[in-house]
Write a structure and sequence with these properties.
The complex is a heterodimer of chains A (187) and B (566). Chain A has 187 residues and is mostly helical. Chain A folds into 2 domains: 35 residues; 147 residues, no CATH class. Chain A is built from 6 helices and 5 strands; from the N terminus they run αββαβαααββα. With 566 residues, chain B is mostly helical. Helix content of chain B is 64%, strand content 2%. In chain B, the strands form 2 sheets. In chain B, strands 1-2 form a two-stranded antiparallel sheet. Classes of the chains: A mainly alpha (187), B mainly alpha (566). At the A-B interface, α1, β2, α2, β3 and α6 of A face α1, α2, α3, α6 and α7 of B.
Chain lengths: 187, 566
């Protein structure tokens, strides 16, 4: 034991210098070459920062495309999911009430067409996206509130649909913040 | 074909294609042969050895290996306890986060030095940036320890009779500087240029489009996320781990991070083939691991893409599968695939909430950790597999009536005793502690009401998962469990310590004892261990020892939940 203590102490000290210090500085240095200098990319609208490009935010007003439910209320300083099991009766009641409320706000939508992601919470509570189907299903409501034609909204969603990686891998997505900013620009 | 399925096939194929050359590189590093990174890294290694007064060429026997390993881990334990309990006044704390209580610091310390990275705190509010940097340090060095132990076992498996198994510090330092560090830098760069933050500035604030005031946590995340993936650590920077959009911004980074979860575990198998010049043995081990892995992944992906039966009954569309706890940009398939890769290896990072998986996917995640050697953690995954090999050799030796031999060494009572104890330890720890917590809850549900976030069978699964994750040194969780209390902090801490060090001590001891024995050259009567027949034998042993002994517990948790909600 004794013969190992001194090397262990010294080696630990060098590891601290190297892996906490030098490695961190290398990555921090490299971050200065990224467009946002490692601070996280922000999105501006009318000269104000209105959000972080990667992080979702709460959209509940009828005039905006709704984002997904969030277990933490889109708290970007305390991420997390609901951690509810899909068999939990209280949880299923929550989902049911989200469905009911969606139907009230979107009277023209049939229940069986509601995509489950619009009534279930994401893992991070900060999901920035919805699926294209989840965007299309909200068109009728927004067209009515904003007095826009459905075709214009359809075109807007198409423009904002991020296709799978290289057209092949993973799901298609729509970034809700970007979509809503452009929606505000339409009026 | 479905683009979500194509995505996960791409991830797996990329991983294997990268692991084969990486395995050869790792083999060269442990053998001390020249590699193309020597120009930069040889001086670095020399500095490490010189400054800490270590002679890397001085060989150690297996006992000296273990002594060195345990001593340095003890130093880390004390150091980490000190930092975590004093973060509030130490530097690099712009968000004014508090220090940890003693039981939480104990849990977190054990969790990070044991390569588990179970997190009973939340990254945004529970640690300072200094704390994060120290936890990042442990992600390097705890992975390095597992790999060093594995390298010593590879060395012991060679065809010769010796007590000398290389130098622990040599393997340890080179694992960190030559394998983990370069890979981490590459991954961190890829993350940086996709938007993961790397800054020492504190929280930011803005007013959202809808008019809400939002605080945004940031920090030196890119550096930490890289090593948490490549070192099978899994300790995330943010609370939501790799489901957090800053920690895992898009589908491309998801591929990068998911590949890094199992890259080194697979590469180590090929490194063994290279070091022992037994390519066929390496492919046999790889095949057994892959069959096990696929048998967990395929049904999990199927069930997550199919969606939850309970949600179907509410009468809405589940085109995207079961989406509770999942992110749109990854989808159900990539979330289920990640869920299994992170549990069969001892990684434990998540890109979806495991608590919200459909019941059987939750079971396969549990099984991944119960077996803990279908690829397994960096280094330690192979050590677990090695124990199963020893048991399989012994059983098949008995079946054909020959002296059990593995790679020219006779396996006798002493080695078998160690192997059996190690194989059963995992079962013992998980089941007895789950029994204890279930007993407490069942007899006094009011006092312990805050523990469980879900009722019934799923609540039991939450407790079973926590101890399985601790004992497998995994670190993922059914996070609904209210685990930030002394009971869970302390019991999980004890499980993690025992389940980390004993399964390193055991295999290293067996390998050391075998290495000292006389080498018996192969003859016509030798049981061939690199054949598919023997592969099936190992698979059967793993399934019987690991999977079946947990069957009653699984029947009470996920299986019962599955059938009652059908």
């Amino acid at each position: 034991m004794k013969q190992h203590i001194l090397p262990a102490l010294k080696l630990t000290l060098i590891c601290i210098i190297f892996f906490c210090g030098i490695y961190t500085l290398i990555i921090l240095g490299a971050a200065q070459f990224t467009p946002n200098k490692g601070l996280g990319e922000t999105v501006s609208f009318k000269n104000n920062v209105v959000g972080y490009a990667l992080e979702g935010q709460n959209f509940t007003a009828d005039k905006y495309f709704s984002s997904r439910p969030s277990a933490v209320g889109y708290n970007a300083a305390g991420s997390g999911g609901s951690n509810k099991g899909t068999s939990n009766p209280d949880y299923l009641k929550d989902v049911q009430s989200r469905i009911d409320s969606f139907l009230v706000h979107n009277p023209s939508v049939k229940k069986e067409n509601i995509p489950s992601e619009l009534v279930t919470a994401s893992g991070s509570g900060l999901d920035p996206d919805i699926s294209p189907e989840a965007a299309y299903i909200q068109i009728a409501r927004i067209a009515k509130v904003r007095n826009l034609t459905e075709d214009r909204l359809k075109a807007l969603i198409e423009m904002h649909t991020q296709q799978p990686l290289l057209g092949l891998f993973g799901p298609a997505t729509v970034n809700v913040l970007q979509l809503n900013i452009d929606l505000d620009k339409l009026n | 074909m479905n683009s979500e399925l194509l995505g996960i096939i791409l991830i797996y194929v990329t991983t294997v294609l990268l692991a084969i050359p990486l395995g050869k590189y790792i083999g060269k590093v442990y053998e001390g042969k020249p590699t193309w990174l020597d120009v930069i890294l040889s001086p670095v290694d020399k500095f490490f050895f010189k400054a800490s007064g270590i002679k890397p060429e001085k060989e150690m026997n297996w006992k000296q290996h273990l002594l060195a390993l345990l001593t340095i881990n003890f130093v880390w334990f004390l150091f980490s306890m000190f930092v975590l309990m004093n973060m509030s006044w130490l530097p690099l704390n712009p968000d004014k986060n508090p220090s940890m209580s003693a039981d939480l610091a104990f849990n977190t310390t054990v969790s990070f030095i044991s390569n588990t990275n179970l997190q009973h705190y939340s990254g945004e509010s529970g640690v300072s940036y200094l704390g994060q940097l120290i936890l990042m340090l442990f992600q390097f060095i705890s992975a390095g320890v597992g790999m060093a132990a594995c390298a010593a076992v590879f060395n012991a498996m060679k065809e010769r009779t010796t007590e000398k198994l290389g130098n622990f510090y040599n393997y340890f330092v080179k694992s960190c500087t030559r394998i983990l560090l370069p890979l981490s830098i590459v991954i961190a760069l890829l993350l940086l240029f996709n938007g993961t933050p790397m800054t020492f500035k504190g929280k930011d604030q803005f007013v959202s489009l809808q008019g809400d005031t939002v605080n945004v946590s940031r920090g030196p995340a890119a550096a930490m996320v890289a090593i948490k993936q490549i070192g099978t650590n899994g300790g995330g920077f943010f609370g939501a781990n790799s489901s957090h959009p800053l920690e895992n911004p898009n589908y491309f980074t998801n591929i990068v991070e998911n590949v890094s979860i199992i890259l080194i575990p697979i590469a180590l198998v090929f490194a063994m083939g290279y070091m022992l010049k037994r390519k066929k043995l390496a492919w046999m081990v790889f095949a057994v691991m892959t069959v096990g892995f696929l048998s967990f992944v395929i049904p999990s992906v199927f069930y997550e893409m199919k969606g939850s039966d309970n949600i179907s009954r509410l009468g809405i569309s589940q085109n995207r599968g079961s989406m509770e706890g999942k992110e749109i940009r990854f989808g159900a398939a990539a979330s289920a695939y990640w869920g299994i890769t992170t549990t069969v290896t001892s990684n434990g990072s998540v890109n979806a909430m495991h608590d919200s998986f459909t019941p059987l996917t939750g079971m396969f995640a549990l099984l991944g950790m119960m077996v803990n050697s279908f690829y397994g953690g960096v280094g330690v995954g192979f050590l677990n597999f090695y124990v199963y090999i020893i048991i399989a050799v012994f059983i098949s030796g008995l079946m054909v009536g020959r002296t059990p031999e593995f790679l020219g060494k006779k396996i006798e009572a002493k080695e078998m005793k160690i192997a059996t104890i190690i194989a059963l330890l995992h079962t013992l720890l998980i089941l007895s502690f789950t029994a204890l917590s279930s007993h407490l809850y069942a007899h006094d549900p009011k006092t312990y009401a805050a523990w469980l976030n879900n009722p019934g069978n799923h609540g039991f699964s939450e407790m079973l998962y926590e101890y399985t994750s601790s004992s497998a040194n995994n670190g993922s969780g059914f996070e609904g469990l209210g685990d930030g209390v002394p009971f869970w902090n302390i019991t999980c801490g004890i499980v993690m310590i025992l389940a980390r060090y004993l399964p390193i001590i055991g295999p290293v001891a067996i390998a050391g004892i075998l290495a000292k024995k006389k080498y018996v050259p192969e003859s016509a009567g030798t049981l061939k261990t690199d054949t598919s027949t023997f592969g099936i034998m190992i698979f059967a042993v793993i399934m019987i020892v690991a999977a079946l002994s947990f069957f009653p517990a699984l029947a009470l948790g996920p299986i019962a939940e599955f059938f009652t909600n059908k």
